[in-house]
Model the fold of this input.
Amino acid sequence: MGIVLLEEVLSSGIPALILDPKGDMGNLLLNFPEFRTEDFEPWVDQGEARRKGVSTTALAEETARTWKEGLAASGIGPDRMRQLQEGVDVRILTPGSTAGIPLNVIGNLEPPPISWEQDGETIRDEIEGLVSGILVLADIDPDPLTSREHILLSNLVEHAWRGGRSLDMASLITEIQDPPMRRLGVFELDTFFPEKARTKLAMKLNGLMASPSFVEWIQGEPLEIAGLLRAPDGRPRASIIYLSHLSDPERQFVVTLLLSKVVTWMRQQSGTSELRALIYADEVMGFAPPTAEPPSKRPILTLYKQARAHGVGVVLATQNPIDLDYKLMSNAGTWMVGRLQTERDKARIIEALRSASGAVDVPAWDARISALGKREFVLKSTRSADPTLFSSRWAMSFLRGPMTLSLIH
Done:
């Protein structure tokens, strides 16, 4: 369903920024309008071929035929597939790796091109996301209110940006030991954060920076939202941010920095009722849980509350709605509910629908969701009081499943 939704959005000329923790959104690149056996063969499952007792060539031929027939039944032919293939620049970016297109997540810590007088809150939000991401990667408490490490680093970045000065990790570490301010809040700097403790923080961040793997975080394309959404020739982009190879702290680091940049970019856009970009987060569990406060949660909540007014759509996909914060669910304008595995997840969806749209016929919704078959969904929108049952069409992209780094180049 997520792939089909993205295909429709991209076919309409709308760019998409796609967070891919599992690794299967790269299937958007597997668009084979000629339905040639040799196009499918590198991507079919060799284990399935062995189980069926056939060669991979035979399985690829069967798969190509099945895909062609499935798309024909959905009213989709080669011309529409070519239009999507040629009209959209689909790319896989691999932060922390050089397997695909490397993404320079940290960059030069440049101040955003907006004024403190008009957009001070926006800039501070970006600073908070930046600092939180760095601290998570270093396994340091990222709470912006209670962590003295967060408070110090945020003040250092703000001081530099207010002066129109860019930073890099080396200069930031140096300033930790000799900050350009002597007071934080009402306390003297050395009382709030003694020099010995600051040196310990600087050493920890220096150790992070000295790690051989760190260089992969600061090379590649810059983390620049406009460039992620549009190709130089003006075509819409599907920028897939591949996260499957990363640890949980590294994923938090990337998602927090990326979405903080999205918030800053979004607030620079004029208000509109037209969709100008889509943010799609697949398998979102862990990024915005109901109780914990990981650093990724704040920019996600901000986008859910404010993005619509700026023409930015946000789609969160999960198999476990129990793991989503209720504020996200109550702010959702469109729901596509498939078959759920547990009664807890079903109850969470029904309760969230009740919170978002008032009176909900619980027995009727329970019966609808329980009766859903494969590829069947219940659609609930703020534009209609009554839910609608629909089936997803056949995907133009070959759904081969998650891709490993070795398959990305």
About this structure: The radius of gyration is 23 Å.
